[in-house]
Amino acid sequence: MDDIMRVNSREKRYRWSGRARKGLVLGAALLLGAGCVNSSDKIELLDQDWTHLAGAERVDEGVRIEGLGRAIVPTDDADDQTPVANPPINLRGPVLRVKGDFVLSARLSRLESSPNDSAYLTIYGELPLTQDEWRQEGRAVTLGLEDNDLIVELQDGIDDPERHAYPLPGSARSQGVDVSLARIGDRFSIQINDETVALIDDPGLFDSGVLWFGASARKDGEYLLKSLTARALDKRSEVTVVDNQMPVLSAEEEESAPTGPATASLRRLAEKNHSQLHIGTAVAAIPLLSDQEYARILAREFNMVTPENAMKFQFIHPRPERYAFADADAIVDFAEANDMAIHGHTLAWKEALPRWVTETDYTDQQLKQILAEHIATVVGRYKGRIQSWDVVNEPFEPFGAELRTGSPWYQVMGEDYIAFALKEAHRADPEAKLYINDYALEDPGPKSDAMYALAKSLLAQGVPLHGIGFQMHEDMTDDYQPVEASVFRDNVQRFIDLGLEVRVSEMDVNLQEDDSEERLQQQADYYRSILELALDKPAFTAFSMWGFTDRYSSLQEWWDADGFGNGLIFDAEHQPKPAYFSLQEALKE
Ligand code: XIL
């Protein structure tokens, strides 16, 4: 895939644990409810919903797939700086349930306007886990046209992909090609225009029995997916399909949870006793749409969401003229369907920028224009639907008073980029509350003082700034204890005294290697102490955590996929931890 590696090939290999895999699979299976098309005949999957796939457009002849070149750019300190391809997945489209032997057939057609473009169709037996610095692959087969070859790539979620290439017939260039992938026993049979070209061992890529689809083309290129069918190969086998539905919590589900009656959920307690304070969490689109338990806890316990990565620049704006809104839209639609507020994240940041922004030789004026246009488009799209935004993220050096100078925004505008971004966001949605968000601000000290001075000066200039987000990514270990709640309380007060709103925006409490019972209790007490200080301050608008379940936590290290993070309030099995119950208790008062 041109300059983008298809898979992260860092030295250490990803190891999926049985536990993690089971979650995704079970979740997906649960989503497949009534209304299935069940048939031993051919099912045309293009009749399902392809309108929510980024880069796809329904046309008379099929689905036109445009290459967005969406990729995850590693952070500056990573050894390997090659971006990792992050092609769109049709999370709200067809989900196929398969049993036994079956065949998937696709007609891939190059367009006259771009006869040499590469075309890819990926079938996922397990979805990847995407963070914004890495992507842990799931299990998948990719069928692709590259130059004069059919490419078949098997990804088992652990090793580098196994890649095969077969020559295409001459006519394929102009007329397109029928490609089939049949699973027969423990082998895949590959056909081109009805001729078998290969038998490949299947390492169990579709053992989950639930298949998802994704499609992409070479960056700046396009192709036509003319048909995509599925068929069971014998009487004992089965293939059914249904569009994945946006999960909505039913009253019954709200009532029955291990955490107690609906009236005791975090959001209901907050709504009853502390209605100015939203209880929030970061949210990712893949688990939201594939793990029903995740969606259920989310809707039940929280009344505010922050898209964890889906609105970051490299995800939502992968090419100069193209946006990929699907994942962000899904989170916004879900929040609205479940009566939750939305906090947007984030517009002007020095990280998560696509290469087209950081590596093109733009004039200052052009870069300024890029930021303005980006803010107008993203904020404008969700105008009236997103109540507040992290307009500027992490403007300061990690632990100092200096502004970060590395971002292109700083480089063209200096400190003024902050006011510029806030004004552009305000123009795009005058009702939205606009925040600056950063970490290591909870202690009074040089960084917090600098933020205070910045906020004060912006307000004095009449810049539309409404609040400060305190991330509160905390660590709790033998050698380190996080800031005391009373210290944070006093520090936050001076921001409130400026007339600003404040929010805890990304709290997690990492226990590192020691998650003994004792530590879990300390974690619980600490969470509670921070929530308590927010409860009765009208200026405190949200108590928001950076995820809620350790299963998909950003504290899960990419090199240790066997492990999970331990900083959130539900464990990797989605069970409430002491921290959950301590928040519940605090909200009862
Ligand atoms: C994190 C995401 O959660 C991860 O998926 C990603 O790998 C790194 O970024 N401060 C922020 C968030 O403002 O955007 C960061 O999110 C965590 C720190």
What is the topology?
Blueprint: H1 18-31, E1 37-39, E2 43-44, E3 56-59, E4 62-66, E5 71-72, E6 84-85, E7 94-99, E8 102-110, E9 119-126, E10 129-130, E11 135-136, E12 139-146, E13 149-155, E14 162-167, H2 172-175, E15 177-184, E16 187-192, E17 195-201, E18 210-217, E19 222-232, E20 238-243, H3 251-255, H4 266-273, E21 278-283, H5 285-290, H6 292-301, E22 304-307, H7 313-316, H8 326-337, E23 341-348, H9 355-358, H10 364-381, E24 388-393, H11 408-413, H12 416-428, E25 433-438, H13 446-460, E26 467-470, E27 473-475, H14 485-497, E28 501-510, H15 517-535, E29 540-545, H16 578-588
Parallel strand pairs: 21-22, 21-29, 22-23, 23-24, 24-25, 25-26, 26-28, 27-28, 28-29
Antiparallel strand pairs: 1-20, 2-19, 3-4, 4-19, 5-6, 7-18, 7-20, 8-15, 8-19, 9-12, 9-18, 10-11, 12-13, 13-14, 15-16, 16-17
Helix pairs in contact: 4-16, 10-12, 14-15, 15-16
Could you list some keywords that capture this structure?
single chain; about 600 residues; alpha/beta; 8-stranded antiparallel beta sheet; 29 strands; binds (3S,4R)-3-hydroxy-2-oxopiperidin-4-yl beta-D-xylopyranoside
